[in-house]
Amino acid sequence: MNQFERFALQIRLQTCRMLKSRGFGHLGGAMSLVEVLAVLYGGVLNIDPTNPSWEHRDYFVLSKGHGGPSYYAALALKGYFDVSLLPTINANGTSIPSHPDRLKTIGVDATTGSLGQGISVAVGIAKAFTMDRKQNRVYTLVGDGECNEGQVWEAMQFAAHHQLSNLIIFIDENHKQLDGTTKDINNPFDLALKAESFGLFTQRVDGSDCLAIVSAIQKAKASSTASCIVLDTIKGQGLPYFETLADNHHIRFEKDSLFQLEKAIEVLELQLSEVQSHG
Question: Which DSSP category does 211 fall into?
């Protein structure tokens, strides 16, 4: 198991523990982000958790704000704040609300949650860096359901037109949104072909394969324009029971779902223990 896969295991476990403690939350879309977050925060991003406001840092914007649980797990494990805060997600007075808020959570670069807007923020940050001739890179993650928003495509067109080579856009294509499949609600057709037609250097990769994601990022960094990486994922990724659960966007954990979450935690704890015992 490589370093990114190990980090993904830790993120997935902490996310499950967090949601069990809260009793409800956005499990499906948080799980499909785990591998890309493990890659970014496991070594790709140029960041310093001891200095969250470091001016030379890379920026990450979670446009798909409801993926907050796994995002917070990654930040805590990276050392931005203590892991003990994770069970307070979405509680009154918490510093880790349901959706990311840069004024509340250390390590969050942009407040997001209103779908379609985060990518525009990321594009604006990337453009500002090019105007100031700074070397910072910007990474943003959009949901496939979020791609129903026209603002997403306006942002992509702007990024390609201005050749923002410091920007990498991820699309988490888990093929589901709030109340059904993307195909049935508003067919997105081929997101990779669409992004490419908007002028972006585009790749499609297995979103559960950390090394494939790393390779795609390396290729994107070599591009002379803005890049898009479409991640082929599963909603509820890494948790077999929840992968097959039709309504897995937001879950209130009771009876069967609570039992299955507890079972998933046990499996993840065992896997992590085995990995640690082998060095």
Answer: H
The domain limits of the chain are: 3-277
Residue 107 has what DSSP assignment?
T
* Tens digit of each residue's pLDDT (9 = 90 or more) over 210-247: 999 999 999 999 999 999 999 999 999 999 999 999 99
Alpha helix segments (H runs only) across the chain: 3-22, 28-31, 34-39, 68-78, 118-131, 150-161, 182-186, 191-197, 210-221, 240-243, 255-277
Measured distance CA(21)–CA(232) in Å, rounded: 29
pTM above 0.90, yes or no: yes
Q: By C-alpha distance, which of 125, 157, 161 is closest to 140? A: 125
- Write down the CATH superfamily of domain 3-277: Thiamin diphosphate (ThDP)-binding fold, Pyr/PP domains (3.40.50.970)
> Would you give the end-to-end CA distance of the chain in angstroms?
10
